[in-house]
Design a protein that fits this description.
Order of helices and strands: EHEHHHHHHHHEEEEEEHHHEHHEEH
Number of domains: 3
Largest sheet: 4 strands, mixed
Helix content: 40-55%
Distance between the termini: 43 Å
Number of strands: 11
Strand order of the largest sheet: 3-4-1-5
Strand content: 5-15%
Length: 329
């Protein structure tokens, strides 16, 4: 959870009080800095969801070596990540979705050392002596840039497709089911309440009135959710992209591959739950035109059903399609 120290606000929040104007302006989107921070937290964690484990195992050792050569950076991270609170200067949300990492890091790099140390004290307590020097904001930004460049940048196009698929699906649900449907299952403890109240976690923290402000919902490959703000007018809820999208494609039954072909089998296997074309592109890695063609063939064969949800069309296996996948497995 986060705040923005420059406006002197550090209070844990359990609910946002909103009005119709806030929710009319609210947007789903992505953030390279949020994705990088989520990745850094995963690399430092001993408890990693199974769909993130291959990525974690591929890069965790490199981060350890990087921190062995940077004792100030290592101390900074230990002090920044508390059990229930992350230092505010790391989590300030973007002013708009889909900015570049360098654009988002401008705020962090503008902070002075006393401001960084004040945030660290809130997160984990007294600041260790290794952090008594200067250049703490530059050290933090360098660690985030290293994480981006060494572990995320090369696969950002795939990650962005996954995140955008989740954003598109939730936006479609918003048009058909309202905000209660759009954020249903978004993260543990996050849910729409009555009378203009948005619960943002399961902790009994006081509410924060954000009427007249801007609200973002940011999808990320994260282990959990958190709340952040850039006072006076921008608030954000970061939520984890679903495991079904975050994980790589599961192995396919070979009989199904021989019957349908590998790409078409991949599409049918991915439709264990209703998904949009965008979600299928992200989950399978197939081109949009290829996915559309396979969907038409599978529909004509009676293996799929579909319905419109807002601006999206959702597809899922019919009884015949389900029986075929189960028999092949």
């Amino acid at each position: 959870m986060s705040g923005a120290h420059r406006f002197g606000y550090r209070r844990k929040v359990g609910e946002f009080i909103v009005d119709a104007d806030v929710m009319a302006r609210a947007r789903f989107g992505t953030s390279q800095l949020t994705e990088t921070l989520a990745g850094l937290r995963l690399l430092l964690s001993a408890q990693v969801p199974p769909w993130h484990r291959p990525w974690h195992d591929a890069h965790a050792a490199a981060l350890r070596h990087r921190l062995d050569d940077d004792p100030v950076g290592a101390a900074l991270l230990r002090a920044a990540f508390g059990r229930t609170w992350t230092a505010d200067f790391l989590t300030v949300p973007p002013t708009a979705p889909d900015l570049s990492l360098d654009e988002e890091l401008t705020f962090l790099e503008s902070l002075d050392d006393d401001a960084v140390r004040a945030d660290l004290e809130v997160a984990t307590g007294p600041v260790p002596p290794e952090l008594s020097g200067t250049g703490l904001a530059r050290t933090a930004a360098a660690l985030l840039r290293w994480t981006w460049e060494s572990t995320i940048r090369d696969e950002w196009p795939r990650r962005r497709r996954v995140l955008r698929a989740d954003v598109v699906a939730r936006t479609a649900r918003l048009s058909s089911e309202g905000w209660s449907g759009a954020i249903d299952g978004i993260a543990p403890g996050v849910r729409w309440l009555a009378n203009g109240r948005l619960q943002v976690n399961a902790h009994p923290h006081p509410p924060r009135d954000i009427r007249g402000r801007n609200l973002l919902f940011i999808a990320a490959h994260s282990r959990g959710s958190w709340v952040s703000w850039r006072l006076p007018d921008t608030y954000a809820v970061v939520y984890p992209v679903t495991g079904a999208l975050a994980s790589g494609p599961a192995p396919l039954p070979e009989p199904l591959v021989r019957l349908l072909g590998r790409a078409r089998a991949r599409v049918l296997a991915a439709l264990d739950a209703p998904r949009s074309t965008s979600a299928l592109v992200a989950g399978t890695g197939l081109p949009l035109g290829s996915v559309g063609g396979h969907l038409r063939v599978l529909l004509d064969a009676g293996l799929l059903e579909r319905r419109r949800s807002g601006r999206e069309v959702l597809y899922w296996r019919s009884d015949a399609g389900q029986a075929l996948v189960e028999a092949s497995a």
